[in-house]
Amino acid sequence: MHLPNTWQKCAPVVLLLLIPAPSVAQERAPHPDRNARPVLPLSLKEAVALALAPEGNVRVRLAEQHLRQAHARRNEVRAALLPQTEVSLGQQSRTLNLEALGIRIPVPGFRPFVGPFTTFDLRATATQTLFDLGLIRRLQAATASVNAARTDLERVRDQVAGHVARLYLAALRAEAAVATARANVALAEALLKLAQDQKAAGTGIGIEVTRAQVQLMNERQRLLIAENERRRAHLELLKALGLELDAELQLTDTLSYAPMEVPTVEEALAIAWRSRADYAAQREREEAAQLAYSAAKWERLPSLVGFADYGTIGSSAAHTVPTRTYGVVLRLPLFDGGRREARRADAHAAWMQERVRTEDLRRQIELEVRTALDGLRSAEEQIRVAEEGMKLAERELQQARHRYEAGVTTSLEVTDAQTRLERARENYLAALYAYNLARLDLTLAMGTIRQLLR
C-alpha cells in the first residue's frame, strides 16, 4: 500500500481554505453554502497518528490511566520501606487517683487524689523499617506490575493502530467500490445508448433497449448502496479517531497491490517473540505474580523496625526539659490463625494462572503468525487470478459489443458479458482488500504494525 506523507502536500490547500475569500469572490457567490462540511485529507499514517495522540482513541487514554494507577500503587508499597516521621504538640491538664494505679501510702492524712496538673509536650517521632523481606518482595512485585502496565500500554497502541488501519482499509474498499459502481453505471449507459442506436438503425428491437434500461437501473441501485456503505465506513473511522462525525474525509491513499518480502515461519515467530507487546506484558504479569507469591511466602520471617523520638516536656512551655527515646523492635510472627498460609496459597494459584496464560498466549501468537502467512500467500494468488479474470472479462465484453454492433448476436450476450465483467471487478477489488488486510494481519501477528506505519 502506498502511504505518502500528504500533510505537507495538503498544507497549502488547508491554508487557502482558512483564508477569507476576497470581496470579488463574495460578489460572485453572494449565497455560499453555510452547511458545507469541512474536508479532512487523511492518509493511513496520519489516521494512526491521530488515534495514538493524547486526546485520540479512548482505549489508549484508559491504558494511560491504568499505568498511572500502577505507579501510584507501587509508591504506596514503597512508602512502607521509607522513614515515617511526624511532629506532635500537646498540652493537657490531668487529675489522678493514685489508688487506682496501685499506689497506697498508709500515712494519716494522705490523699490519693492528685491534681490538677498540666503537661506540655513537643516531640518529633520517626520509625524506619530496617528489614522486612516480605515488604521488599511486594515492592518488587509492584514494580513488575508497573512494567506490565507500561508494556500493556504499548499493546493497546498496537491494537488501536491495527483497528484504525482495518477501518481505513475498509473505507478504501468502500471508496473503490463506489468507483467500480460508477464505472459500471457508465458502462450500462454506454450499452443503453448502443441499444438505442441499434433500434434507431433498424437492426435492434425494443426488448433490447428495455433490457439495457433495466441493467442501468440495477447499476444505479448498486451505486446508491455503495455510496451509503462508503459513508458508513467513514463514520466508523471518524469515531475511532475521536473526530467530529460531521467531518468529510478525503482518503489520500489508494487500495493497491504492493508486493512484500514474505518471511519464513521461523523468522516471523522470532520477530513476534521479540516485538509482541502483549507477550511482553504477559511475561511481566507472570513475574509480578511470582514475586507476590514470594512476598507471601517470606512473611513468616522476622522483621526489624527502628524507632526514635526527641522532644521537650514539662509543666508548661516555659518550664520544659528535653527527653528522647530510641530503640529497635524485632517482630517474629508465630501464629495468626492460618491467614498467612491462606495468602500464600492464593498467591501461588494466581502465579500458576499467569503461567498458563503465558503459555496459551505463546501458542496463540504462533497460530496467528502461521494463519497470517497462509492468508498472505493465498491473497497474492487471488490477486493474480482476479487480475487475469478481469482482463478476460473485458476482452469478452469488447468482443460481444463488436458482435452486437455487427448484428451477429443480440444484446443478451452483451448483458451477460457485462455481468461477468462486474463480477470480475468485484473479485479483483475483494482480492486487493484481502491482500492488504493479510499484510496488516501479518504485521499485527509479528508485533511490527507501528513500524510499518511510521
Structural overview:
The structure is a single chain. This protein has one domain (6-81, 133-301, 338-452): Outer membrane efflux proteins (OEP) (Up-down Bundle). With 454 residues, it is of the alpha+beta class. It is built from eleven helices and six strands. α4 packs antiparallel against α5 (133-200) and α7 (265-275) packs across α9. The protein is elongated. It has helices spanning 6-18, 23-28, 44-51, 58-79, 133-200, 206-241, 265-275, 277-297, 339-405, 411-446, 449-452, and strands at 39-42, 84-97, 113-131, 248-251, 303-316, 319-331. A hairpin with a 2-residue loop joins β5 and β6.
- CATH architectural designation: Up-down Bundle
Helix content: 55-70%
- Mean pLDDT comes to 85
Q: Which stretches are low in confidence, meaning pLDDT under 50 for 5 or more residues running?
A: 1-34
Oligomer: single chain
Number of DSSP E strands: 6
Structural class by sheet pairing and helices: alpha+beta
How many domains is the backbone divided into?
A: 1
> Per DSSP, what share of the residues sits in E-state strands of 2 or more residues?
5-15%
The side-by-side strand order for the widest beta sheet comes to 2-3-5-6
CATH superfamily: Outer membrane efflux proteins (OEP)
Please state the overall shape, judged from the principal axes of the Cα atoms: elongated
